[in-house]
Amino acid sequence: MQRNRRTFLKQAGAGAAVLAAASALPTRFAVAQKAKLKLGLMLPYTGTYAALGHNITDAMNLRLAEAGNKLGGREYEIVKLDDESAPPKGKDNAARLLVRDKCDLLIGTVHSGVAIAMAQVAKEENKFLVIPNAGAVQLTRQNCSPKLFRTSFSNWQPAYPSGDVALKDGHKTAVIMTWKYPAGFESAGGFKDSFVKGGGKIIKEILPDFPSVEFQAGLTEIASLKPDCVYVFFAGAGALKFMKDYEAAGLKASIQLYGPGFLTDGVYKQAGSAAEGIKTTLHYADDLDTPVNKKFRAAFKKATTREADVYAVQGYDTGTFLIQGLDAVKGDISAEKPLIKAWEGVKIDSPRGIFTLSWSHEPIQDIYLRQIYSGDEKLLGVAHKALADSGSGCVMA
Ligand code: PHB
Prior knowledge:
By secondary structure, this protein is an alpha/beta fold. The chain folds into 2 domains: 2-153 and 291-365, 3-Layer(aba) Sandwich (Rossmann fold), CATH 3.40.50.2300; 156-282, Rossmann fold (3-Layer(aba) Sandwich). It has helices at 2-23, 27-32, 50-66, 90-100, 112-124, 156-168, 182-197, 216-225, 236-248, 268-271, 291-304, 310-328, 336-344; strands at residues 37-43, 76-82, 105-107, 128-131, 148-150, 173-178, 201-206, 229-233, 256-260, 279-282, 347-350, 353-357, 363-373, 376-387. The strands form 2 sheets. Strands 6, 7, 8, 9, 10, 11, 12, 13 and 14 form a 9-stranded mixed sheet that branches. It has a 5-stranded parallel sheet with strand order 2-1-3-4-5, sandwiched between helices. Helix 1 (2-23) runs parallel beside helix 4 (90-100) and helix 6 (156-168) runs parallel beside helix 7. The chain is globular. The structure holds P-hydroxybenzoic acid. The site of P-hydroxybenzoic acid has 10 residues, from loops.
């Protein structure tokens, strides 16, 4: 794999010489010529997270279309790549977009392991990376970077309030079940931070490999351990299968299920009775009663015939983020310092509510408590107001 990447980059090197000559021209010349901005969009369009990638893409395009399909007055083109949520291919795919296709900026992705690989390549190539989902905490902590921004969440963020919710519901013991990869560990970590601090006890952590949907052995173990509650991190098609299996195993009626809202978002309608009663925390809720949310949901439905979910919201907000930054520099992405300043100062009037970015380039946002009730997702309240990731270990240099 490593050898392939080196070979690829070497081949790309010949093109890079031409690129270097071209970039010696004054940037203003290029901008005056209104060369199209090239956006590299790397997301999963196949596999367990496929629906997430599609919703991010479609909602981002919707937002850009609302702004006349221009960024700071410049036309743009999008180069799309299916990353298959496959971390081993992450670096080659990111290099393909930045080196071979000469994209000006990279946008992606859903899976934390792939996003970590993308961030390494973006740093090597000295390019901007905007993350519309993946919550890997290191990207706003020890591996934060001036040209790396996130419009979504850190995996700790929606998880942390859920431990308190479970305690308030009277639970004292929990089993955690999550896919065995950074997002799962970090989400579990957020739950433990509040649940254990408040006196709760974790009696077991069950860790199937990503993206396995072989949940049976874990469910059998949960049935014998009989915890007060279960906390899980699953998303997309895997989350749908998990909810159905949990119900089929006869656990739903006796052991309350919690998780970040990724468990139910985009799939609770298909899950039917299996989703009923599940309580989740997330930085979005379908029925937020604001004009921005209502307008967004209607527009997304009209454009795609699908219901919006948190992934669509993050795609839409990524569109707003691009617009606000590139408008501030009139489309000149080489004006790096003013662009970073503009992006650090964004105030996004999102369907999730207004949010700004922390010093480590990550949304400071309300986390909502939601529950599936009579086939709909109901907003129960704000679980944590204006929650920010600690950004601990982040040095912006
Ligand atoms: C992640 O890998 O960070 C991730 C993936 C899917 C989600 C949330 C987080 O729904």
